[in-house]
UniProtKB/TrEMBL annotation:
<feature type="domain" description="Fe-containing alcohol dehydrogenase-like C-terminal">
    <location>
        <begin position="179"/>
        <end position="294"/>
    </location>
</feature>
<dbReference type="InterPro" id="IPR001670">
    <property type="entry name" value="ADH_Fe/GldA"/>
</dbReference>
<dbReference type="InterPro" id="IPR039697">
    <property type="entry name" value="Alcohol_dehydrogenase_Fe"/>
</dbReference>
<protein>
    <submittedName>
        <fullName>Iron-containing alcohol dehydrogenase</fullName>
    </submittedName>
</protein>
<dbReference type="InterPro" id="IPR056798">
    <property type="entry name" value="ADH_Fe_C"/>
</dbReference>
<dbReference type="Pfam" id="PF25137">
    <property type="entry name" value="ADH_Fe_C"/>
</dbReference>
<dbReference type="GO" id="GO:0004022">
    <property type="term" value="F:alcohol dehydrogenase (NAD+) activity"/>
</dbReference>
<feature type="domain" description="Alcohol dehydrogenase iron-type/glycerol dehydrogenase GldA">
    <location>
        <begin position="6"/>
        <end position="168"/>
    </location>
</feature>
<keyword id="KW-0560">Oxidoreductase</keyword>
<dbReference type="Pfam" id="PF00465">
    <property type="entry name" value="Fe-ADH"/>
</dbReference>
<dbReference type="GO" id="GO:0046872">
    <property type="term" value="F:metal ion binding"/>
</dbReference>
Length: 361
């Protein structure tokens, strides 16, 4: 069994305990973020600390969802490589962008070469401050980018963040749609990690706890978005789920969902979670029963959150998506022997049988 997690994690609602860590990281900080960090005040708070510590910083606040390689190249062109610390402040996209930029700062390689782990063995320091509860990127060695319109993750121990600061209060301003889609990303991580053929007793421990917390609290949070205690619970679940996929990686639901996100604009967490009932049912394992014991019927759980995704799709697209899934690394770690026709069947199940597909937009 292997469990390696070099990230220092602070789960709290003020920076006081982590300020020394920020001080130690370096002197020059490049902050990668989006617009929401101004709304939830996380950017203000971070800048206050950096100013107090007399650190030099620049801010890139135009991070796009599903970070495209062109944006990563633009950041390097605009801000150069002379940074001690790259900060990922926001959801998965700023954090995954920060990880890519951190490697490029220390290596003369292209974005495509990030996918060849032999080409590099260093990165600038990485500080992650998530402001959504779902991605888990703050504690993983993964970064998912979009290369030529295909969503694809790279993996390397050097992109484990050095420090992760989780402050549940930053998630209080998330709307219902984002709250649900990001929490379902966390649920997908936990369920996929639990079912994965790479699961071990460390990952099971974190994955089961995450499933339990989400099943007990997500519906209540949706009805009471300003409830701090519930926000805190879901953020903890997201952290646990992130730790579990750091051990196992994700499985087929993630691979199936990627095309729905890049080609149809369906949010990552939703695009992934809609395949969970199928994946659980076809895992043929006692683990499936364990999940149902905690969550109840997985399809009913999604329906209780009013999940209904809409997009137009044709046969040719399903064939292309299925081929992409078949070529992905997720297939061999997923129980259930997925071949091309079973992968196609999974898409058909979503469209025709699940009740989660709402037809053309
Ligand atoms: Fe995910």
């Amino acid at each position: 069994m292997k469990f390696y997690l070099p990230t220092k994690i602070f789960f709290e609602d003020n920076y006081i305990q982590s300020i020394d860590e920020i001080k130690r990281l370096g002197d020059k900080f490049l902050i990668i973020t989006g617009k929401s960090s101004k709304i939830n005040k996380s950017l203000d708070e971070l800048l206050k600390i950096l100013n107090k510590l007399n650190k030099k910083y620049e801010i890139f606040d135009e991070t796009l969802e599903n970070p495209p390689k062109e944006m990563i190249n633009n950041i390097i062109e605009r801000y150069g490589k002379n940074w001690d610390v790259i900060v990922g402040l926001g959801g998965g996209s700023p954090m995954d962008t920060a990880k890519a930029v951190a490697v490029l700062c220390k290596n003369n390689i292209s974005v495509e070469e990030l996918y060849d782990s032999n080409k590099y063995n260093s990165a600038a320091k990485i500080l992650c401050i998530p402001t959504t509860s779902g991605t888990g990127s703050e504690v993983t060695q993964y970064s998912v980018l979009t290369i030529n319109n295909v969503k694809k993750g790279f993996k390397h121990d050097v992109i484990f963040p050095d420090v992760a600061i989780l402050e549940p209060k930053y998630t209080l301003t998330l709307n219902k749609e984002l709250t649900v889609s990001t929490a379902l990303d966390a649920l997908s991580h936990a369920i996929e990690a639990f079912l994965s053929l790479r699961a071990n007793s460390f990952s099971d421990l974190y994955a089961l706890k995450a499933i339990e917390i989400i099943s007990l609290n997500l519906n209540n949070l949706v009805k009471d978005l300003g409830n701090y205690e519930l926000r805190k619970k879901i953020m903890l679940a997201s952290l646990y789920a992130g730790i579990s996929i750091g051990i196992t990686g994700t499985t087929i639901a993630h691979s199936l969902g990627y095309s729905l996100t890049t080609e149809k604009g369906i949010k990552h967490g939703l695009a992934t979670a809609v395949f969970l009932p199928f994946e659980i049912e076809h895992s043929n394992s006692s683990k499936a029963n364990k999940i149902k014991e905690i969550l109840g019927d997985p399809l009913e759980f999604l329906k209780s959150l009013n999940i209904l995704i809409k997009f137009s799709v044709n046969e040719r697209e399903i064939e292309a998506w299925s081929q992409r899934v078949l070529n992905s690394s997720h297939v061999k770690v997923t129980p259930g022997n997925y071949d091309f026709s079973k992968i196609k069947e999974t898409y058909k199940w979503l469209l025709e049988k699940s009740g989660l597909y709402g037809g053309n937009k």
